[in-house]
Amino acid sequence: MASKDNSFISLQGVAxxxxxxxxxxxxxxxxxxxxxxxxxxxxxxxxxxxxRMLAGFEVxxxxxxxxxxxPMSAVPPNARPTNMVFQSYAIFPHLTVAQNIAYGLxxxxxxxxxxxxxxxxALQRIRLGGYGQRLAHQLSGGQRQRVALxxxxxxxxxxxxxxxxxxxxxxxxREEMQIELRQLQRSVGITFVFVTHDQEEALALxxxxxxxxxxxxxxxxxxxxxxxxxxxxxxxxxxxxxxFFDGTVTDVDGDIATVDAGSAGALRVPVNGHATRRxxxxxxxxxxxxxxxxxxxxxxxTNSVAGRVTAEAYFGDRSHYHVEVSGLPHHIAVALxxxxxxxxxxxxxxxxxxxxxxxxxxxxxxxxxx
Amino acid sequence: xxxxSIGWLELYGLLFIALLYGPMLLLPLFSFNDxxxxxxxxxxxxxxxxxxxxxxxxxxxxxRNSLSVAIPVSIVSTAFGLxxxxxxxxxxxxxxxxxxxxxMVPLVIPFIILGIALLTTLRKTFDVPLSLWTVAAGHILIxxxxxxxxxxxxxxxxxxxxxxxxxxxxxxxxxxxxxITFPIVLPGVVSSLLMCFTASFDEFxxxxxxSGDGATLPVFIWSQLRFPQKLPNVLALGSCILVLSxxxxxxxxxxxxxxxxxEKHSGF
Lengths: 370, 268
What we know:
The structure holds two protein chains of two kinds.
Chain A: H1 2-6, E1 9-18, E2 21-31, E3 36-40, H2 47-55, E4 62-67, E5 70-71, E6 82-85, H3 97-102, H4 112-125, H5 141-153, E7 159-163, H6 171-188, E8 191-196, H7 199-205, E9 208-213, E10 216-221, H8 223-228, H9 233-238, E11 243-253, E12 256-260, E13 266-270, E14 281-286, E15 292-294, E16 303-314, E17 318-324, E18 332-337, E19 352-357, E20 362-366
Chain B: H1 8-31, H2 48-55, H3 57-90, H4 96-108, H5 111-125, H6 132-156, H7 161-168, H8 173-202, H9 205-210, H10 217-224, H11 231-257
């Protein structure tokens, strides 16, 4: 049973081609029962197509999707154990809110009283009690979003599919709804598959995330692992911001590799399971907030890169710096907490600095073709 | 301060409208004139032409013929139009533009050519006897473009995810059509029914060529023009048709534009 719960939804070699367009290619991963799972990627990466294949609106060109052990290819959308919250919410404009929520219950064989009860409870749960007789165009965006959620959830699906449901809301409402959505998912215990292009949203909500690009999954992992241990440069660059030092591995000593990063010098970095060897091309990746700025040449530290501050942006609690390192094509971004800063701190721009970071704060990324 | 005054453009507009609609208003005006002849000055007000009209059995028979053509024609054209419009808006059809163009062709072919073509095809090729059935067939041909046009514009402004949501909530394609698609396009359907009815009811040339013994109203009016003493009856009848057609088209247009507010993306 445990193994079945771990592959409650299973995608095996799923591909979808529209003519010559390869929207999704050879996607294989599992989603656990009760998980809040996100498909994250830029627009056009295939995440919505993948969701629509889960819902049954698109049939895979090859491969198979299993939900709760059942192959889904031959199952039409109206017979699948899934319900969807559409990006446009798709509230039926000619029906009232109550009729919208009751829409999927017609075939459940409920009596009139039971039906009215269920709808009323659903309305209470989304805090729209008394709104039952309204039409869609009399509701705000956030209310419509809640009606769409309630309409899907009263059908008690095994899987709830959400297609960028928060994209149309303003920032404040979106943040409120993120918290609500997460609480709701915990309380109903239904598996959520959530599509978004917003990486912060995905990190905040999800148990696990599949990062997609150009129709393929790059990495399927927890938020923390995606951020701390990205598997490739694309993931590292898409989730948060990242500084890259390209170079060649000159030495591998147990868990630590040494990379000659040209003008940035020799950098030491944990291997972290990546297969690597001397002479291989590799990239050392460091997050802006994991770096420190030293105003004097540092003594006795492993990784240190000299440069010059070209720009500073002050945000109150923190400051961002751009540091130019001669010989590197891009500037290095550094984010510092302003815990020590005071009014008489001298201006950083133009100053010579040394960037340092602990070995374990950097990530080794194998380079394509390296 | 700019003073509002009637400039050349406004004058041109007023003149244009007067010339366009003025002659049509003469028809109802003279239908109340107490004289056999259409000429100024007016002799006096009367409704006797209307009384004569409702007692004219041949006229009533023609009215019945027209209705028994126009009603089925509007229903059949709208049904075909709905299927066509749904196929054209919902599927990625190869040659979609060509298909739409072909459907619209009857609108640009002179009806007299269409009438002659249909007449020779029906009589010479298939030897079908002329009747109200043949008139109806011809009218469906010319009503379909109206219906397709009205319904395509209705279906295009319709969020496709509504139908997907219905399927997703467990309804079949058939019940999705009746529970979601049809109620939302209903204003378009009614608008199409009214337009097709009016087009068929007012059509003369095709009815003239394709009707056998049973004349429709316009064909009957044409036949009456030979008898000067019948002219005032025709004026009364013409006025009624004018008012009815105007009303139906006005309702159709209102329905086509308004109806259920379809929910668009908020915030875009």
